[in-house]
Amino acid sequence: MKCICYCGLMLLFISYLIGQSFFVQSLRGARVLVTGASKGIGEQLAYHYAHFGAQIVITARREQALQQVAEKCLSLGAQKALYITADMSSDSDPDKVVDFAVEKLGGLDYLVLNHIGSSLFSMWQGDVEHTKWLMQVNFFSYIQMAWRALPSLEQSKGSLVIVSSLLGKSTSPFTAPYCSTKSALNGFFGSLYHELAMKKSNVSLSLCTLGLIDTESAMEKVRGVTKLPAYPATDAALNIVMTGATRQLELYYPWYTYVMVVTKDWFPSVTNYFIQNSYN
Fold it and tell me: Which is nearest to 209 in space by CA: 264, 169, 259?
């Protein structure tokens, strides 16, 4: 228990230091592409970047929702707020979105990859085709967009921000396909971080590990099922923005996500007991 408390205090201290080094003006005029921005965390990301005076391109599948988010971004102070509809299960749409953002904004300073495909919250029943589809949306489109955007990010000394999940580091029941996609993200971009550093790239890479967030889609699945508390999407989004802006490698939000990752290796049986008994 003392060890867990110590880890929590250390994480809070690190978060404090990150917050102290965050300068709002650094995002004024920044050219930002946010995916999955029609609702949830992506929508909140767009609003925070808008509030800080960035130039924003947002994307998702629903045009009407994107239009409403873009209009609100302009009212919040965005210098530009453009949108493009895209289906990330497509082979061509990920490239199309990056090309659109680079053309309309004249380059990119931040690529924030946040989108996810819909997945059931239930025991796996052997649906391999759905898992393949989800891997395309949640993983392959990420690496496709990152590769497409890297030349522009190199020119601007920009940042690549990956929104991942605690379930990519500490697995949980009822989410096998989702866990597999997030584990793939952590593995690929963790390796890419080393490669960028070894070749002294101008691009920073941030991996954001999130716990349960109170988005509509998440709460529809787990309300009344899990005992874990859900944390605000707007707070999660602000922490992601700050992590990218300060070029930090990792974010754990909320605090317990870091504790879970650490204790998983130290006390696996305890962690597994906690996970399996956190559901009603």
Answer: 169
